[in-house]
Amino acid sequence: MTEQEVRRYLRQMKEEDSERAFHGFYNLCHDRLFRIAYYYVKHQDWAQEIVLDVFMRLWEQRIKLPEINNIEDYCFILTKNAALNYLEKENRHAIRPADQLPEPADQANSPEETLISEELFARYVKALDRLPERCREVFIRIREEKQSYAQVAEELDISVKTVDAQLQKALTRLKEMLLPE
Q1: pLDDT digits over 129-180, tens only?
Q2: What are the residues whose beta carbons fall under 8 Å from the beta carbon of 68, sequence distance 6 or more?
Q3: Are 1 and 29 within 8 A, CB to CB?
Q4: Whether 6 contacts 129, CB under 8 Å
Q5: pLDDT digit string (tens) for 25-53?
Q6: Rounded to whole angstroms, how far apart are CA atoms 128 and 34?
Q7: Burial of 169 from C-beta contacts in 10 A (0-12 / 13-18 / 19+)
Q8: Comparing C-alpha atoms, which of 56, 66, 61, 60 is closest to residue 6?
Q9: DSSP string covering the chain, please?
Q10: pLDDT of amino acid 102
């Protein structure tokens, strides 16, 4: 996702009330926002619902969006907050027997640890989006979806060696983007 593409879509959405521009913006940002939501809720259906709600909110705010300095961070925070609100709502409505209640953590994360963790995750999502499409797809399928090399090779109609090469390429580029020199 490039800043120029996003800005162009945002301008078209505002000035022309363009649903086609919104669709382009959706296609550009959906995967990233889905990964953010899934990171928090760990449930695909919930993450999808959250992302759709976020896009509805973005459409409703389309007039203000071009004025936002960092739309990438804005969307990240919007999705994170929506995911946390969704979890809170689900936890409130969930009635669980006592033997299914989660165990209290020995030590809760400090606010500083939580902030660092969220910042690292945001950097990871941004770096992942900057990978070439095939590298990103292979990396996500193997590392996040836990598919085997053979499964990925078959589904993408490429060889297992190509899967391995793409994964190594993705790992190398992610390390370059995420680790300070």
Answers
A1: 888 888 888 988 888 888 899 999 999 999 999 999 999 998 888 888 887 6
A2: 74
A3: yes
A4: no
A5: 898 889 889 988 988 888 889 999 999 99
A6: 13
A7: middle
A8: 66
A9: --HHHHHHHHHHHHHH--HHHHHHHHHHHHHHHHHHHHHHH--HHHHHHHHHHHHHHHHHTTTTGGG-S-HHHHHHHHHHHHHHHHHHHHHHH----GGGSPPPPSSPPPHHHHHHHHHHHHHHHHHHHTS-HHHHHHHIIIIIS---HHHHHHHHT--HHHHHHHHHHHHHHHHHHHS--
A10: 52
Phi/psi region, residue 36 (left: phi>0; alpha: psi -120 to 50; beta: rest), is alpha
* Pick from 15, 61, 55, 9: nearest CA to 31: 55
Residue 142: both structure tokens together: 């193997």
Q: Give the CA diameter of the chain.
A: 55
CA 85 to chain centre: 17
Q: How far apart are the first and last CA of the chain?
A: 25
**Placement of tokens 């959706």 in the chain:** 26
Task: State the residue for tokens 């793409």.
Answer: 166
Instruction: Output the six-digit token pair for 28.
Output: 């550009």
Contact 55, 28 (CB under 8 A): no
